[in-house]
Amino acid sequence: MVKATPSARRYLLHHRHRAEECGVAFSSFKGLRSPLRHEATVASCRSGEHAIWWLVDAASPEDALALLPFFVAERCTAVEVTEVRIP
Q1: For the ranges 14-18, 35-39, 62-66, 74-78, which has the lowest average pLDDT?
Q2: Is the Cα torsion angle 15, 21, 25, 26 positive or negative in sign?
Q3: CB under 8 Å to 34, separation ≥6 — which residues?
Q4: Predicted pLDDT at 51
Q5: Residue-by-residue DSSP string for 28-68
Q6: Which helix (H) or strand (E) holds 79?
Q7: Confidence label for 71 from pLDDT (cuts 50, 70 and 90)
Q8: Cα separation of 67 and 69, whole Å?
Q9: Per the domain annotation, does 27 fall within a domain?
Q10: What is the Cα–Cα distance from 62 to 47, expressed in whole angstroms?
Q11: What is the extent of the structural domain holding 34?
Q12: Would 4 be classed as within a structural domain?
């Protein structure tokens, strides 16, 4: 998870792409200066669903999406989330 300032909000980034775009989604990070690059996250490409999720801290949804390359960001949603305890 990428952490920003203490006042930042937490966002779940959900990216989807088609099977034939898988290589483009991953290679679009090359050359990008992003704290998400070279970090582990979860994806469903190997199971055939072709989605990637990141949990990031940012000041706004736009700032959260700015952590991604254009190809990925334009196919991504940023949803503000908070931690909850399940009873």
Answers
A1: 35-39
A2: positive
A3: 67, 68, 69
A4: 97
A5: TTTT---TTTT---EE-GGGT--EEEEEEEESSHHHHHTTS
A6: strand 76-80
A7: very high
A8: 7
A9: yes
A10: 29
A11: 9-80
A12: no
Number of domains in the chain: 1
Residue 73 reports pLDDT greater than 90: yes
pLDDT tens digits along 4-28: 555 689 999 999 999 999 999 999 9
Among the listed residues 13, 16, 6, the one whose alpha carbon sits nearest the alpha carbon of residue 75: 16
Contact 78, 15 (CB under 8 A): no
Helix (H, G, I), strand (E, B) or coil at 13: strand
Q: Is residue 1 in some structural domain?
A: no
CB 85 within 8 A of CB 30: no
Rg of the chain on CA atoms, in Å? 13
